[in-house]
Specification:
It is built from ten helices and nine strands. Strand 4, helix 6 and strand 5 form a beta-alpha-beta unit.
Length: about 260
C-alpha cells in the first residue's frame, strides 16, 4: 500500500496530461475574485528532481516533459507553473500537483494535501510550507470525506491514487458519488492509468453511467520503455469548468503527434 514513489515516474506523459488539465482548471477558477478550496488525496512529495537517480533510472521524464515542453506557450498555466518552480528550485526541478496548485493559487485560497507514505509526507511538508496550505499524513479518501463540503465551497478535488490496491478501480465510482453528494458544486477530478490490461474500463463505464455530464479525457502515448504497461492516461472530471473541452481537444492533437 505504501510502496509507490512517484519520483521514478515524475514528468512522464501521464503527468503532462494530468498537470496540463489541472493547471488550466485552477487558472480558470481563479479568474473570479472569490476564494476557492483545493484538496488532493494522494499528493506525493510535491517536488521532483529530473536529474535524480530515480528519474534517470526509468527515463520516463525524457520521453515525457522533455518532449512536451515545446507544446506550451509561455502564458499557458502549466508553463507558468513550470517556470515558477524551475526559477526557485533549478532547471531540472519538476512540480507535482501540490506545487502546481501553489504556483497558480492565491493567498486567499485554501490548499489541503494528504499523503500516507511517511517519506513522501515528510518531503511534502518541507516543500509545501505556506500559510494557506495544510499537509496531512492521512488516508486521502478519509480526509476528503471529512472536509467536504469545504470552506470555501468553490474549488477542486484531485484524486490521483497509485492503484496499487486492486479494489481502487471498484470503489472509486462509489467514492466519487458520495463526495459529489456532499459537495455538488465542486470540480472532482480523477486521474487513472490506461494499462495494456485495460483494468480501467469497468470503472470508467460505471463513472459514465453515474455522471452523464462529466468530461472524460483520455490520451495515448508509446510506452516509456520496452515492456512498460502504461500506454495512456485518463482524467474523469465531474463539473468540468466551461471551456475545458477546447483545452482537451487541443491536448489531444498534441498527443496524436507521438503516435
Amino acid at each position: 500500500m505504501l510502496s509507490y514513489q512517484h519520483a521514478y515516474h515524475a514528468g512522464n506523459m501521464a503527468d503532462v496530461h494530468k498537470h496540463t488539465l489541472l493547471a488550466w482548471m485552477l487558472d480558470y477558477l481563479t479568474r473570479k475574485d472569490k476564494p476557492l478550496s483545493y484538496i488532493e488525496t494522494h499528493a506525493g512529495r510535491g517536488l521532483y528532481d529530473l536529474s535524480g537517480a530515480e528519474a534517470v533510472k526509468t527515463g520516463e521524464a525524457a520521453s515525457g516533459i522533455a518532449l512536451a515542453d515545446r507544446w506550451f506557450a509561455q502564458d499557458h498555466p502549466y508553463a507558468r507553473a513550470l517556470k515558477k518552480v524551475r526559477a526557485t528550485h533549478g532547471d531540472t526541478a519538476y512540480p507535482g500537483s501540490p506545487l502546481i496548485a501553489q504556483s497558480l493559487l492565491r493567498p486567499t485560497d485554501s490548499i489541503r494535501l494528504a499523503d500516507l507514505h511517511p517519506q513522501e509526507y515528510d518531503a511534502l511538508r518541507r516543500v509545501a510550507r505556506s500559510q494557506n496550505t495544510q499537509v496531512f499524513r492521512q488516508d486521502g479518501f478519509e480526509l476528503a470525506h471529512s472536509i467536504c463540503p469545504p470552506t470555501p465551497r468553490r474549488g477542486l478535488l484531485l484524486i490521483d491514487p497509485s492503484y496499487e490496491i486492486r479494489d481502487d478501480y471498484d470503489r472509486l465510482p462509489k467514492i466519487l458519488g458520495t463526495l459529489h453528494q456532499k459537495w455538488n458544486v465542486g470540480v472532482l477530478a480523477l486521474w487513472y492509468p490506461i494499462l495494456t490490461s485495460a483494468e480501467h474500463l469497468p470503472m470508467v463505464a460505471a463513472l459514465k453511467a453515474g455522471f452523464d455530464t462529466a468530461l472524460c479525457s483520455e490520451v495515448r502515448f508509446p510506452p516509456a520503455r520496452k515492456g512498460h504497461r502504461m500506454v495512456g492516461s485518463g482524467m474523469f472530471i465531474i463539473n468540468p469548468p466551461y471551456g475545458l473541452e477546447d483545452q482537451v481537444a487541443w491536448l489531444n492533437k498534441k498527443f496524436a503527434t507521438l503516435r
